[in-house]
Amino acid sequence: MTQSTPKILSIAGSDSGGGAGIQADIKTFTALHCYGMSALTALTSQNTLGVHQVHAVPVDFITSQIRHVITDLGVDALKTGMLYSKEVIEGVVDTLQELSVRAPLVVDPVMVSTSGHRLLNQDALTALQGKLLPKTTLCTPNIPEAELLTGRSIASVRDMLSAATRLNSVNTLVKGGHLTFSVDEVQRAIAEVRRGDFGDVGDVTNPTNVTVHGETFAAAATNNDSTNTATAYVLDTYAQLRGNPSTQGTHKSGEERLVVDILYQRPQGHLDIFIHPFVSSTSTHGTGCTLSAALAAYLGGSRSGSSRDTSACTRMTMAEAVQAALTYTRLGIEHSEGLGAGNGPLNHMHSMHRGTHITTPLTPRTTRQPTPLTTHLITTAGVWWDTYIAHPFVHQLATGTLPSSSFRHYIAQDYIYLLHYARIHSLAGYKSRSMGDLEAFARITSQIVQESAMHRDYCREWGVDEKTLMSTPESAQNIAYTRYLADVGHSGSLLDLVVAVASCLLGYGEIGRRLKTSANTGCPISPGVVCIKDNNPYWKWIEDYASDDFQAAVFDGIDMLERMAEEDHLGADHLAHLSNIFTTCCKLECGFWDMGLHRL
Amino acid sequence: MTQSTPKILSIAGSDSGGGAGIQADIKTFTALHCYGMSALTALTSQNTLGVHQVHAVPVDFITSQIRHVITDLGVDALKTGMLYSKEVIEGVVDTLQELSVRAPLVVDPVMVSTSGHRLLNQDALTALQGKLLPKTTLCTPNIPEAELLTGRSIASVRDMLSAATRLNSVNTLVKGGHLTFSVDEVQRAIAEVRRGDFGDVGDVTNPTNVTVHGETFAAAATNNDSTNTATAYVLDTYAQLRGNPSTQGTHKSGEERLVVDILYQRPQGHLDIFIHPFVSSTSTHGTGCTLSAALAAYLGGSRSGSSRDTSACTRMTMAEAVQAALTYTRLGIEHSEGLGAGNGPLNHMHSMHRGTHITTPLTPRTTRQPTPLTTHLITTAGVWWDTYIAHPFVHQLATGTLPSSSFRHYIAQDYIYLLHYARIHSLAGYKSRSMGDLEAFARITSQIVQESAMHRDYCREWGVDEKTLMSTPESAQNIAYTRYLADVGHSGSLLDLVVAVASCLLGYGEIGRRLKTSANTGCPISPGVVCIKDNNPYWKWIEDYASDDFQAAVFDGIDMLERMAEEDHLGADHLAHLSNIFTTCCKLECGFWDMGLHRL
């Protein structure tokens, strides 16, 4: 172990059914590779249908548990859940003070039951606000709790922003699960915030004090400053067509409901807005407990996943911890099994079989995120993917302004490239261990050969016959790219090779889709660059890669990649190696465009 | 998921420090991919230094928790821990009866504190024996608890056997952690039991009613009927020299202390004796809770590890569940981090980063088991490894009776084999991604070339020059083996190739060691086969492979194999593929001996 296991203390109630309370906390701590400890505040005889009986634990016993645990074992972070009275709250605060506890404290202000009943009387509420929150590193109220704590109703993103700035904890995360918004509403709210129009939020005035975090769907909506700088419409389309069976053929953009969580950090007055699709499920019992436990785990130092992750020495930022905890919790809902007759618990073990965890960006495949590896590869390729997709060569293809000499040079080189690209797929066939894969690679090899017919057609127009075409001297860039693919094939595993060839497939699919969409809608592919169809000598090229056949081949490629990744139980090292391969191929693709443009 | 997650209910106390009680149970259930639920019987304010305060939970509340959990969520297995009074015990039994619970029930009869104090009064003890044990699928007393329950003292393996048959639970596991035995004592006890001399054990009379399970060390001691049919002294020697730093240079066979656990099953009256080395550690707080929780998890259906393990549909036998639970618990002690100032807790997360679990045989590397992959490969090769190591060709080399024509044929073919074996290591160098591995493979390639000097020496004696030797036509068996290695190298990853070449390295190392030891001690390598040195024309061959240099190369090979496996996060599928490769190579080695013997 590079560093010791983080020790996290939960001060909360017991849920016999196992879905919430310290049971959910211990499960979360364990799943995130932390050592869990607990000071019980109340016992419940509970199941998915509700709480049937409560047994309060005496205050002295609560503080005794806290004291004995911390003085002997120490603590790296804490969370509180159900603190049922003023005396309990004061006892907890006083004990932590007495022990000079400096570790991050996450407070889940349990005050309102799922049926809407007040769980804390006014004295307790006053003690919470007056004594506990000022010592709280991060408070995580849901909407009803935030309304109670601020005395204001919350019905919009703006209201949530306002509430987030008004609690007196050091940092506040207002959880939006009780409200959903349309894509339009969220986009409008973000636009307002970017304009500096925060509404009633006190000391937040500077637009650079806001960061918007979105998932794939929302990333497309918030393109300009999403932390996902590399986007891929092919992935969005794949998700729509093959990811979520319930939306096949019926998905309409705009019908998607979004959930927003807002993090407000002091003293810098920074707002983080987290957007993700609403997951409709009845298995949400223990969501709040799980989230606050995950937050405590991450703030306490959890990097879960590979115990040899030496980069774990750097603590996560608050926003990173929130993002990771939100993802962990959301996956728990998505992977739930519907236990019990009422609101079932989350599945805390969703990432455990994989041996990695969500702090390495590879999450398990779900209907919401069916392309974890492909998304990771594109995201980590970052600016190299962006440049590849939006290269001047590509822009000039779109606007029909590419010099014909550049295009001819490119086409001739690309023909030779496709020969090698095809033989690389034969090598992949050789490395296969199943009839299905063998047949798939044989089919792809044929499809690549057929794709090269376009190149021969263009050359025929130019009076260049196939024999001349085949004897084109390979440029250095062409050799670099094709023989890099061959070397990956000889040095590594089949998955390594499938990742290497994915760059060409995904990139051309992305470009074809973007350019054709641009020509149809008039929307730019980059500022000032709109694709045209009429009088564009390269329209045939664009249509080829935008065609249903080619796009289907792209989706098949994504299918295969994700399936192989799932079977391979990728560790962090191998994942980094795959990212390296994919990014290198994106760079080589950029070099290929350069070669075309400048006839190198 | 192939089948739903097993739901396991713990009826036990709370340990605020997190090492025992329902906290340890929840951690264990979670690590073993089960859904954990809990009915709390008592709260403790506790840390590693001890229990400081206890808060009893009213009986009605205990039974209420049990009832609400089982009626809503159902249950696949249960365990009980601290049941502090007659009323609690009767309440639990009556409630389970009322709910018609048929799921396996594991009872950890918590009755004696670590300091030796009685925790249950006589009424409670009577209720436990009279009402709970008859409904108990598996009771897990430690030595003091077994003494209390049987009224007899326990000081030997025989006493443990007797106690195991005397409890009135359906099955009983007497845990031996409080006693350790010498290797001699254990061997004697096993010999007695095999003779049918069970001592005072009632209905156990038939020697076939006993199965002995041992770890690597004890397996060597109980060679004849160990479930590990394939053994490897090279692994034992490796473990002694490189596995356990504390025994380097000082290890004396016989000084090892062993722990014995005894499982007695009704109605068949079967005894399973589990032997493993004693692990000296102060981090044993919660061992009993962890073991009983793991037993409940496995009996409830946990196959943990890959969620795609379709063989999970078959329930484990009682003995398999006990073996798996003992291993899980032992690893928890071995991987403990010494938290707190007193007796620290186990590490329940020891196998989680790996993504597999101990029901697939690959455990994490520990000083006790430093060769999990190599051991697995040899064990799964089973009879093919045994035949390879003890082939008639090998026997005839040992006794010096191998016809010289066979030896000459073999040596000539083996020379060509070594050429290919060396170039395979160059291929491995090509597939390497680190300077260290590159250099290692270059070095091994040289060493193989140097090893072939022996072949040239023999041939020189026979008047065969190197040129003639090199032009020996390759036999079909030689082509099969060498080109199989090459194909593994081209088709798969570097690890695949390292596993493939391991068979030759390990096997020849094993044979050299066994034959030389036999010649030195006069002990047979197989019934009636003793290796001789004097007048043995093949002694030079034997000495070569028994030499310190060659044995060191074997250990280096094991080092590399285990390191690469650890880095690779092997999933179940890949592990099976590696086993397949290794077993195939053992078969090919057998074929190579056949080729030599019969001059094919």
TrEMBL record, chains A, B:
Gene Ontology CC terms: cytosol
MF annotations from Gene Ontology: hydroxymethylpyrimidine kinase activity; phosphomethylpyrimidine kinase activity; thiaminase activity
Domain Pyridoxamine kinase/Phosphomethylpyrimidine kinase: 15-222, 248-347
Protein's UniProt keywords contain Transferase: yes
Keywords, comma-separated and alphabetical: Kinase, Transferase
Stored Pfam families: Phos_pyr_kin, TENA_THI-4
Annotated ranges, domain Thiaminase-2/PQQC: 384-597
InterPro entries membership: Haem_Oase-like_multi-hlx, HMP/HMP-P_kinase_dom, PM/HMP-P_kinase-1, Ribokinase-like, Thiaminase-2/PQQC, Thiaminase_II
CDD domains reported for this sequence: HMPP_kinase, TenA_C_ScTHI20-like
GO biological process terms on file: thiamine biosynthetic process
Record-linked Gene3D superfamilies: 3.40.1190.20, Heme oxygenase-like
This protein's record includes keyword Kinase: yes
Listed name of the protein: Putative hydroxymethylpyrimidine/phosphomethylpyrimidine kinase 2
UniProt lineage: Eukaryota, Fungi, Dikarya, Basidiomycota, Wallemiomycotina
